[in-house]
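Intended use. Records like the one below are meant for learning the mapping from a protein sequence to its folded structure. Do not use them to infer anything beyond what is encoded.
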Amino acid sequence: MDLAGRPLKVEIGRVAKQANGAAFMHYGDTTLLCTATASKQPREGVDFFPLSVEYEEKMYAVGKIPGGFNKREGKASEHAVLTSRVIDRPMRPLFPKDYRNDVTLNNMVMSVDPDCNPEVVAMLGSSIATTISDIPFDGPCAATQIGMIDGKLIVNPTLEQNSVSDLQLTVASTRDKVIMIEAGANEVPEAKMIEAIYLADETNKKIIAFIDTIVAECGKPKHDYVSCAIPEELFAAIREEIPQEEMEQAVFTDDRSVREANIAAYTEKLREKFADQEDWLAVLDDAMYQYQKKTIRKMILKDHKRPDGRAIRQIRPLAAEVDTIPRVHGSAMFTRGQTQICNVVTLAPLSEAQKVDGLDPYKTEKRYMHQYNFPSYSVGETKPSRGPGRREIGHGALAERALLPVLPDKETFPYAIRSVSETFESNGSTSQASVCASCMALMAAGVPIRKMVAGISCGLVTGDTDDDYIVLTDIQGLEDFFGDMDFKVAGTHDGITAIQMDIKIHGLTRKIVEEAISRCKDAREYILTEVMEPTISEPRPTVNEYAPKIVQITIDPDKIGDVVGKQGKVINEIIARTGVKIDIEDDGSVSVCGTDPKAMDQALNYIKTIVTDFEEGQILTGKVVSIKEFGAFVEFAPGKEGMVHISKIAKERINRVEDVLTLGDVVTVICLGKDRMGRMSFSIKDCPKNAKPCNA
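Structure written out for the chain above:
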């Protein structure tokens, strides 16, 4: 088919024939192999669907050899992890809820055409491979990316267009509804965002019609599987022991520990009651989970009662503070109910920006790095820390995306910025609390962000029809677990900067999408106006006293080699003498970074001296670094020397240079121009008294 002016071709049955389903995908010259495989039997001892999604970036796809000693692809890059998550989110709800067989969706990028984004191809390939396979799946779904340049929406923008786009939106849809939204935006208004979402949805419907023709020709019958659904007899027995009213009382509390203690007591009571029913005992925990879920959904949908007693639109108690942690460059804490994030900002020279080695030629480094940590104590559990998982990487990337549009450019603020969100307590939407805390920490650190950004999440509980639903503002963990949606939106007063939507049902109607976006805007405005702005109203005028200071100058690019010196000898000598850090760009921009203003001034003077073409009559100061029979060499900047002839040292005649000068002497000289050999020629005896050196 033609997709956004480029040919999309799918080959079935040519490669990977032993997979349950395989699609050899070609979009322009972008090529991916997408496969779907499933185990023969369900995995024992799990109460969830074990789906694994992989997105493999092969560096040969862009004609590169991987870096490092191994020279082969290692663990998945952050971008690959994020792409895997985007593929997972629309696919997972379409598998049967009682399916426990292991399923792996593998997407291998084999070549990249800059005009055809491989991420979109991977999403389509996963859907096609699974839909034509014998794996139970209520697909297909399709995905489209939307960009926006100069206010014009673009379907499936090229990599180059994406690099300058004001919107990076990915939307997945089923035949009838939107099932996933992921967006980064430069303050796009809500109405424009909705227009973009449904432009993508229209494109997705055309792709699904194309996939239907493939399934009709190549699709396999779906295999039977062992259902892991809870027996209805067990549910009936549980209800008899614990009536609905008692379960409502057990879960109707805003204290998570109390609720969990109530459920644990009921579960223990049932274990004793069903001690002779081994089959029931094996699934009792899952049955109690399902009973809680049905109870809470009924309370919300029919009675409009939330577990913590809040109104449907009510946000939990909010608190904010800055300068929480001493001596760091910037810090803030944001609390929303039982969700609490402490954010710490660190500033460094641009040379410490993160290098990115991936398939996108327009993304080679990250100057702003947002990282998110989720320790087990934040939810009252205990387990060893094994480093960030996919969830942590995803939450950090979402907060990063939300704040990027308001950051100053590197010309205005020549720093690399690392923002770390530490989860102190978690009970719903820590990623959006991270946005709020990070925004305030950046301002406290003196980062001149253009506007403040806040984020909030809305939830959803649906009934039997499309019109039977309720949208919840500021969902807590329980409403997320048992509800149908986690719709996160971050932005400023003027527009959206990031969206991430996860759902557990087969899609959302336009009415629900519009209501969720509107509800998030109202909540975001409240958080900004009532909580964040009273805490810190504008960025601090200077960076924190413990943060490095950076001064920038611009030199002639032809002089960069003089400053760097052979094998970096000159610049390294400046760094060794002053203790500063120096970054030099190809355009001649020089950044000097340090904490001691005197040392920074000294380094700047060295650089200015090195790049200056001195003329006759200028006064300099320098150190005697070499003595010869005919004169002395004076270093007036690292790597820059001039000669004082023996006849120019003293007013009276001298026989030996050593009679007047010794190594290490600091002298003031006047420039006489250049000698026949092109060297700077100096005089000590002709230097005016009390003259101020221009390199002092």
